[in-house]
């Protein structure tokens, strides 16, 4: 947690990324911001924790609507009170997401200072961050949009850069921005590092709601019209603000850098050295992870022999590496990635290849998260599959039926109430129920501990889309 000024700052956390370069751990269904990559907490939880306590208002989180329950659950687990969770019906890059947050904050207080940040960056030095935030806040109150520029420590080609201009009068430690620079090649990055005038573009910004709305109206009017309509026609659902689908979908797909920062005359930069990383690749994660005497970073059940400067991670399967240097090995329950660390940026290209080949592992984990809990596939064969299902205390599945499959549920831990057509059946450990094809059914966990059961499906078609919902606690169709 960092210190803020006396007037409360509104944290705005953008939580819509997919983290494609961290496949096979990060996937569209469960991207990197929901994983504990650099601490015992998830990236989202670490991010929000930096902006809690005295001096900070409740956060605004902008996320993909498919991730809404994961966001809500992780915030609740981190004891974050009264967050506003804004749901993007479609992905439209950072500018529309920021516009939605700015408009919502503007409704409450146009002078509110917003701290805009991604949910998936790592920061090691909270004291330095606090000092940088104070400088950025002063610039924001002077009408600027202040970017955090990270002091480069290497000729990084995976980041965009900010070229600093002259210091700004009356704003200590704040400079004008001469220009934004796209991700450079290696030679250009070496020159930037040697020259001392270029900073990594962290994607963090501080500005008032009034300044952001005014600059969006001046520089990206079409975008602001679309997002303003999406906010005006939004609906409240549980803890969520659902942006209007049609209006938000009409907004241009554009980043805040292109829409505003590269055009505005209010841009400023706060140089900072805060131990920042966007954790955008496995090599970046290796750089910030603790190393052993041979330069290796490991996670999970891993054993190394005569290996150096490598990152090896296992999510459960014993993984042994012998005689390798400068490699990345990542093992999940359904995929393995092995590569040289220098090729870390190529994972995104590999992922495109996997998607083209229609591997479901490209986008989905074996464990699939739902608002009531999760399920994971164990065995699949001709006309049958077996799943493990876990239902959180007090939660229940939708009232549903299937056209192509029957199911058999066996409780292995906890207690279940099962609706089967007109029946209500109480099941305890080692008890089971058969659900014939076409029956209307539902399962509920009435207990205080998670309910775990094994589901055996049999039928001519076993896809997840063979489901008709009649009633759902979570507003799904």
UniProtKB/TrEMBL annotation:
Keywords: GTP-binding, Isomerase, Nucleotide-binding, Nucleotidyltransferase, Transferase. CDD domains: cupin_PMI_typeII_C, GDP-M1P_Guanylyltransferase. InterPro entries: GMPP_N, Man1P_GuaTrfase/Man6P_Isoase, Man6P_isomerase-2_C, ManC/GMP-like_b-helix, Mannose-6P_isomerase_type2, NTP_transferase_dom, Nucleotide-diphossugar_trans, RmlC-like_jellyroll. Its EC number is 2.7.7.13. One of its GO terms (molecular function) is mannose-1-phosphate guanylyltransferase (GTP) activity. It is an enzyme of class 2 (transferase). Residues 360-472 form the Mannose-6-phosphate isomerase type II C-terminal domain. Pfam families: ManC_GMP_beta-helix (PF22640), MannoseP_isomer (PF01050), NTP_transferase (PF00483). It catalyses: alpha-D-mannose 1-phosphate + GTP + H(+) = GDP-alpha-D-mannose + diphosphate. Coiled coil: none annotated. Transmembrane segments: none annotated. Residues 305-354 form the MannoseP isomerase/GMP-like beta-helix domain. Residues 11-293 form the Nucleotidyl transferase domain. Belongs to the mannose-6-phosphate isomerase type 2 family. NCBIfam families: GMP_PMI. This is mannose-1-phosphate guanylyltransferase.
